[in-house]
Design brief:
The complex is a heterodimer of chains A (about 475) and B (about 110). By secondary structure, chain A is of the alpha/beta class. Helix content of chain A is about 60%, strand content about 5%. Chain A has three domains: about 1-80; about 85-115 and about 125-285, no CATH class; about 295-470, Rossmann fold (3-Layer(aba) Sandwich). Chain A starts with a helix and ends with a helix. With about 110 residues, chain B is mainly α. The radius of gyration of chain B is 21 Å and the shape is flat. The chains are: A alpha/beta (about 475), B mainly alpha (about 110).
Chain lengths: ~475, ~110
């Protein structure tokens, strides 16, 4: 195969990837988009195999690796529960990062493999300055993505406390490591790619930096972190696309990089936080102390599942607001059943989703889809917020801060300015919560103390199930 | 005038692709943001092309097989991502359904 034909085929792969993302503009076209993505991958892999000088051992090595990796991937994809999607995505990001580091290392150690031409015996390949810089940037971002995603995975999986870890001088330390990485990149480049130790130091420092960047970020900011790491994995791929002179890799890297960046932006806007303040971390500390300090003796109206069932059955319109608590309790199936029963009673049921509900972008939508809730009953914040004033019941399950009116009317509140679902405009607000504790930000929700609020204390799934029983 | 460095052409592709990504991703419906992440994950594993080159080509110096094995490991990791990413996206997308007509209602599994 000629080099030109190969380059054209890589371009085809890149275009197929663009179409794959384009398909996601609506659920109807999304499935086809996913197939186009698979086709793009097949084109890219096939082209590479045809254009390279593959020897027998290499074929066996590749075959074995693909079979093992593919089998692991397929099993994970089949078995993973939908609630675990955030940690799965974080885990996958870490693999892309590690892959980038390994490819960069292989390029340094066996450069001739990437140029399909024999090197001169005994003489090390001479690298271009630009490709050395691209390669070390790719390796550095890859290593940051890897270790950062491992930390994010551990926090999401509960292997590590999700509370932020902050210490004095943290930002200065990060800055110093960043500068040191830059120095070693220059050193590696100046040596013409011969200083292999410098390469490994770059990788090592970047691994540390990745950990340091993610540990100070708290659990509730995870949607931003996951999107950010998504973006990083894209930039790492793009940097190596420059080194390998591969269009498919360049286009994909740019797509993924900007995709992750846009998602991070949307998540930050959903929390009214600047990207910089999320990265600097420290928010989302366990707000236990803050809430205890407030200690206001106001009364809440606590209700039973039978009360809730009675009110909802006689309502004309119910809006359900799911949050992370629903995911934790796996209450989506019970919730769907409740929705169906209400619809059978002639109640108008819809679902309202805040952009940062859950632990990753779109988390709640996937869980509702899993429970067979039709996607045209599920609405985003800006589409449904005006509907609450006409609703009889706002049923808030496992969400808190995203419904806090303080974000709109209390300038002293830490979440002031954050867009919230205006559930308080409904005639009755029901909160399914495990306790009266505050949300992740440690902020009291004044809604709990309003006259038209009914608190349903208990596990989200059990409470929903008993409401369903109470409907008869 | 001297010839333009090929690097500039690659930079042009890269910059234009960022713009394409920008507009394409803004058009993705928020309901599909999770599948968006899993599919971008799968396609960014196209980095496997580099891993294939490293794993499949014989080393010049028979004593140093490091590049090869690093490449093979990378092929395996990228394969986990490619298969896992596309399949889990497919599984998720299969779950997104429109409102069904009340008559034709049959319970269905998780899309797989």
């Amino acid at each position: 195969m000629s080099a030109n034909l190969a380059a054209l085929l890589y371009l085809v792969a890149g275009v197929l990837f663009i179409l794959a993302l384009r398909g996601l503009s609506s659920p109807e076209t999304a499935r086809r988009g996913n197939y186009l993505g698979m086709a793009g991958m097949a084109v890219a892999v096939g082209t590479t195999l045809l254009v390279m000088e593959l020897d027998g051992f290499g074929l066996a090595l590749i075959g074995g690796a693909v079979v093992i990796g593919g089998a692991i991937g397929a099993v994970i994809a089949r078995r993973i529960p939908m609630t675990a999607m955030p940690q799965l995505v974080a885990g996958f990001h870490s693999l892309v990062g590690l892959c980038a580091v390994l490819v960069a290392a292989a390029y340094l150690y066996e450069p001739h493999a990437f140029h399909a031409g024999p090197a001169v015996e005994g003489v090390r390949y001479s690298f271009g300055t630009a490709s050395l810089i691209e390669l070390s940037i790719g390796a550095a971002i890859g290593a940051i993505t890897f270790s950062g995603s491992v930390i994010a995975f551990m926090k999401l999986q509960g292997l590590m406390r999700s509370a932020p870890i902050v210490f004095k001088g943290q930002h200065w330390l990060n800055l110093a490591i960043g500068v040191a990485i830059a120095v070693f990149v220059i050193f590696l480049t100046a040596s013409g790619g011969q200083a292999l130790t410098a390469f490994w130091i770059i990788c090592f420092l970047s691994l540390i930096l990745g950990v340091l960047l993610i540990v100070p970020i708290g659990g509730a900011d995870m949607p931003v972190v996951v999107s950010m790491l998504n973006s990083y994995s894209g930039w790492a791929a793009a940097a190596l696309g420059f080194t390998l002179e591969n269009t498919a890799l360049l286009i994909t890297g740019a797509l993924v990089g900007s995709s992750g960046a846009i998602l991070s932006y949307i998540m930050c806007k959903g929390m009214n936080r600047s990207f910089v303040s999320v990265i600097l971390g420290g928010f989302g500390a366990d707000g236990g102390e803050a809430a205890a300090g407030a200690d206001i003796d106001r009364t809440v109206k606590q209700g039973s599942s039978d009360d809730a069932a009675f009110i909802m059955k006689n309502a004309g319109k119910v809006i359900i607001v799911p949050g992370y608590g629903m995911a934790v309790a796996q209450a989506q199936h019970a919730l769907k059943e409740l929705g169906e029963l209400l619809k059978a009673e002639g109640v108008d049921v819809s679902y309202a989703i805040h952009p940062v509900a859950g632990r990753m972008p779109g988390h709640m939508n996937v869980l509702l889809a899993e429970a067979n809730v039709p996607y045209d009953e599920v609405f985003e914040l800006e589409d449904i917020n005006s509907e609450f004033s006409t609703a009889d019941v706002a049923f808030v399950i496992g969400a808190n801060d995203v419904t806090n009116p303080a974000a709109e009317d209390d300038p002293s509140s830490p979440i002031y300015g954050m867009p919230v679902l205006q559930v308080w405009k409904a005639k009755t607000v029901m909160f399914v919560k495990r306790s009266l504790g505050s949300g992740y930000a440690g902020i009291e929700n004044p809604l709990f103390f309003r006259d038209n609020t009914l608190m349903l204390l208990g596990d989200a799934k059990k409470m929903t199930e008993s409401i369903v029983k109470g409907m008869d | 005038m001297e010839a333009v460095d090929p690097f500039i052409f690659r930079l042009a592709i890269f910059v234009l692709a960022i713009f394409i990504g920008y507009y394409v991703v803004w058009s993705v419906t928020p309901a599909l943001h999770t599948p968006l992440m899993s599919v971008t994950n799968a396609i960014s594993s196209v980095i496997i092309v580099g891993a294939l080159l490293a794993a499949g080509t014989a080393a010049i110096d028979a004593g140093s097989q490091f590049g090869r094995y690093a490449g093979a490991l990378a092929v395996m990791l990228a394969s986990i991502n490619i298969f896992g990413g596309f399949l889990v996206t497919q599984r998720m997308l299969a779950m997104y359904k429109k409102k069904e007509k009340p008559a034709a209602k049959k319970p269905e599994g998780e899309g797989q």
